Amino acid sequence: MPVSLVFTSDTHVPKRARxxxxxxxxxxxxxxxxIHAGDWVDAALLDLFEARSRRLVAVYGNNDxxxxxxxxxxxxxxxxxxxxxxxxxxxxxAKGRELRCxxxxxxxxxxxxxxSHIPWDTTAPxxxxxxxxxxxxxxxxxxxxxxxxxxxxxxxxxxxxxxxVPPRR
Length: 169
Hints:
Elements: E1 3-8, H1 22-30, E2 33-36, H2 43-52, E3 56-58, H3 67-71, E4 75-80, E5 83-88, H4 97-104, E6 110-112, E7 120-123, E8 129-132, E9 145-153, E10 156-165
Parallel strand pairs: 1-2, 2-3, 5-6, 6-8
Antiparallel strand pairs: 1-9, 4-5, 7-8, 9-10
């Protein structure tokens, strides 16, 4: 049975934005599973995700402390519709990332990560898919903020879409 997914990371609320963009909240409310790769900044945002998500798979990031580190793991794993997911905030330098992560996560089909705020979708020679949804609130050197939606279905990740976040006014 197809499972709808939302991937996000580096939300940094309330430091980089007062709230998440409405389209992302709408996607979160509609998704079967929400995956967040860390840098929440405030446990109040985690509370909102838990209230709005049917299922949340999440980790803490380097900017998360106190209650966030008490409530979230450094690495999360989930099997969803035949796909083995791992979630971690940091993967290190972009150079050599695919090989390094394939060695670190050998029993994983999709590795979701954050930290750089740079959208990323590649596949290692081993078949490990690496996905960074970017940041919906802090685009850094990117043209716009982003988050990702996809569908897990019979062991495949399909219909993956990087959504551009409209600029704040």
